[in-house]
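Re: [ENG-882] Designed sequences occasionally contain unexpected residues at chain ends

Forwarding the minimal case from QA. Structure tokens:
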């Protein structure tokens, strides 16, 4: 519920109403503006109605937030949020490009790839130390050793690093070494992980589950914001459909749909979205054209030798070519590219 106070409302009114909201077990929000103070109340809708705030003489209007997600919604927060991962800003005019291998394999492979993507203009580096694999017999990341390598490479190149957290047991170690945490598609509705990451003060890249609706993605983000972490970037990475020509079907509808309803930045992962190297660049261009705030791309120094996702990883030259192709598309939609 959004409560707009009259311009003449004294500061004590805001406090009095916030106290009333809290006393009912609801979550109070204080959003002072330049002309009017706006308050929010989140929680059980029947209790919200009982508060009868509209009868208060200093309340100008009371409006329900219609979306099931509240803190994530533009109804509550009309302006675009910008999330910062180190020097990289996601959600402003500049497009964010985060690139890197699927996984940390060796120090050399990680460093070489990071240097290559940095030279081509990437603003962030990605690589997994904990990898969710469909088969238990496949390479599942080097864990703590991978994290250590990733941190070293981040420091050596100056690129902020993003890496996946799969389990609350690893959270402290990852928070200590990474600049941003990724919650992968398979964990988008791991509610205990969402609650734990919500307590952390590090940006989060939340990937859409492969069978999740857009509303479920936004409600997963609501878990993070309602637990106190509002540094959230949403990521469309393709969904499962009947189509088998590609690994997933990249749902670019999600980009403008989410941008209209949520203030959170949205990036697109055309690597997992297609699973096919030759489709990554065209879909990255399409993502930027339809309003994505950035892209997350897998790049490997030598994809044929990659321990995971080699078939969808760009060669460094392919990534450099993509960056050159992105510039005019970014300019056409009023964005800049570093
Ligand atoms: C990844 O980014 O390497 C990854 C495992 O992605 P997703 O969770 O989208 O499958
Ligand atoms: Mn991958």
């Amino acid at each position: 519920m959004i409560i707009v106070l009259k311009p003449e409302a004294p500061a004590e009114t805001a406090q009095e109403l916030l106290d009333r909201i809290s006393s009912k077990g609801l979550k109070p929000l204080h959003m002072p503006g330049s002309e009017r103070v706006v308050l929010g109340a989140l929680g059980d809708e029947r209790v919200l109605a009982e508060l009868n705030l509209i009868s208060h003489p200093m309340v100008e209007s009371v409006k329900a937030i219609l979306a099931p997600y509240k803190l994530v919604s533009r109804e509550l927060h009309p302006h675009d949020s910008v999330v910062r991962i180190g020097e990289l800003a996601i959600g402003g005019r500049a497009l964010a490009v985060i690139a890197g291998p699927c996984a940390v394999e060796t120090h050399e492979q990680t460093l070489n790839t990071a240097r290559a993507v940095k030279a081509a203009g990437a603003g962030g580096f990605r690589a997994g130390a904990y990898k969710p694999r469909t088969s238990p017999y496949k390479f599942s990341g080097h864990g703590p050793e991978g994290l250590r390598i990733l941190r070293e490479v981040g420091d050596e190149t100056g690129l902020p690093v993003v890496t996946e957290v799969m389990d609350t047991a690893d959270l402290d170690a990852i928070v200590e070494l990474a600049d941003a945490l990724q919650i992968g598609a398979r964990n988008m509705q791991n509610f205990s992980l969402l609650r734990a990451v919500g307590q952390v003060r590090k940006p989060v890249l939340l990937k859409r589950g492969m069978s999740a609706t857009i509303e479920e993605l936004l409600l997963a983000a609501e878990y993070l914001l309602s637990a106190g972490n509002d540094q959230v970037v949403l990521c469309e990475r393709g969904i499962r459909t009947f189509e088998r020509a590609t690994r997933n079907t990249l749902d670019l509808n999600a980009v403008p749909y989410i941008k209209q309803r949520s203030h959170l930045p949205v990036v697109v992962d055309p690597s997992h979205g297609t699973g096919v190297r030759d489709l990554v660049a065209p879909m990255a261009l399409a993502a930027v054209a339809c309003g994505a705030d950035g892209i997350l791309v897998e790049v490997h120094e030598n994809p044929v030798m990659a321990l995971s996702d080699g078939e969808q990883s760009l060669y460094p030259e392919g990534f450099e070519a993509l960056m050159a192709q992105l510039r005019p598309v970014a300019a056409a939609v009023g964005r800049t590219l570093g």
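QA comment: On inspection the terminal residues look reasonable. Residues 1 and 45 are 9 Å apart (CA to CA). Proposing we downgrade this to a documentation issue.
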